[in-house]
Every structure is written in C-alpha cells, then in structure tokens.
From TrEMBL:
CDD domains: YycJ-like_MBL-fold (cd07733). PANTHER family: EXODEOXYRIBONUCLEASE WALJ, METALLO-HYDROLASE YYCJ-RELATED. Residues 17-197 form the Metallo-beta-lactamase domain. GO terms for molecular function: hydrolase activity. InterPro entries: Metallo-B-lactamas, RibonucZ/Hydroxyglut_hydro, WalJ/YycJ, WalJ/YycJ-like. This is Hydrolase. Keywords: Hydrolase. The keyword Hydrolase applies. It comes from Secundilactobacillus kimchicus JCM 15530. It comes from the Bacteria.
Amino acid sequence: MSEVGGMKISVLASGSTGNCTYIETAQHKILVDAGLSGKKLAGLMASIGKDIGEVDSLFVTHEHSDHRKSVGILARRYDLNVYANQGTWDAMAPKIGAVPTEKKNLFAPDITLSMGDIDVESFSVSHDAAEPQFYAFHSGGKSFVILTDTGYVSEHVEGTIRNADAYLMECNHDVEMLRMGSYSWPLKQRILSDTGHLSNEDGADVLMDVLGNNTKRIFLGHRSQENNMKSLAHLTVSSIMADHDFGVNHDFQILDTEPEKASELMTL
C-alpha cells in the first residue's frame, strides 16, 4: 500500500448535467464516470494541474448519459482500462462505440478489486438503471466513498461505506422545490421514488448513519440545476447534522461541488 495520506481526490464535475471524479495514488490515476465531453474533462483535469493522458483506469457507475457520455472516446483516445459490471456494459455498449476488448473489464457488485496500492470496493445501489453500482476506494489507510444516483441507501450499503475519510454524497433535490417545479408528475415521481435520487434531507440522514471518527470531508454531489440550490443543499445538510450534535466545521468539513468546475485537488 502507498504511504498514509497518499490518496488525492478532486471532484471534477458533479450534477445532473455531468459527473466525473479524479483519484490519484502513487501508482494509479483514476477517473470515476465520464459524463461530460472528452474536451471538457481534459480541461477540468488541466485546471487541477493534471494531464488526462496520464489516467490509466476509468470506473463507470451506470449507463445514464451524465455518467458515461465520453467513456468510449476516452477509452479509445487514452488507452484506458474501463471497469463496469455486465449490466452496465450491455446497456451502454450501443451508446459509447467500440472499446478494445483487452480494455473492457467486468467488475461485478460487492467485490473488492486490488490494484497495487489501491483497493476498489463495488456496491449495488437502488436507481433506475440496468445494474447501478458505486465504489469505495481504499489506499494507505484512507478511504473515499462515492455514492450518488440512488433512491435509498440500504443497511448493507451503509455497512460497506461506514467511517470513510471522505464522501461524495448525493444531495440531488429539495423536495418542495421539486414538487412545486416545472417537471412532469411522472418525472417527479421517478426522482422521489426508491429508484430515484436522494434529497438534501436524505443525504444528511445517510451521512449521520455512516460517518465516523475518520470522516473529515463531505462533498455534496449530484445537485439538480432545476430543483436545488448550492446554498440550500449546504444549509440543509449542515443544519440537520448540527441539530443532531454532529461537529459540522469542527470534526469535519462540508464542501460544495460544481457541475463544471473542479474542486481543489486534496490529499486525504
């Protein structure tokens, strides 16, 4: 394993319009999802001083466009190893173009993949995609969990992701903004369902169940452009957690993410 504190992370983009996260260890440079154009992702990487051409692995969570838009392009252009489960491969194959067979890697749910100085743990979530799964990354005694695009979080998943050093947690919508907004009723029902998305309140509830003494950073992710506001998501989560005696801004930081602006590259 790498030295303690060796894992670096940046949320390159998070939101309904596109998602991508960068993770780096001494041996690996990894992307999770590629939901924006290759050109935009290359620019976001450059904004944190990194070259997208040095990325070696891409983990895909599910086939929705805001997570897989440039998967095929990046795989072909930069010779990446791409990891996804069978359901996701089958669902996204017609949409991403050819990926060299030797670069296609099957990664089933509830498995830990060891890659030198980093272990990647997969877990299933409840979302209206073919076989959605997210990931926990472990390196040098540190861990980082990505969990967006789920309608609820099971006890099994909570057990898998408990006490990580950092989280990227879904806070997709404010329930009242969604209910009063312009979306069709079927779409509202989909978002609010058990296979939809976590609200700000839901995200706070999950965080209170899983964070522990190791947890120092919480990124609020996958914010809806239509049914949420950055300030509202931050205030809602902070207030709920503070009301339950969690040490907001003392024991841990709550950090915002942007749809097309990378967060600072930080070492866990």
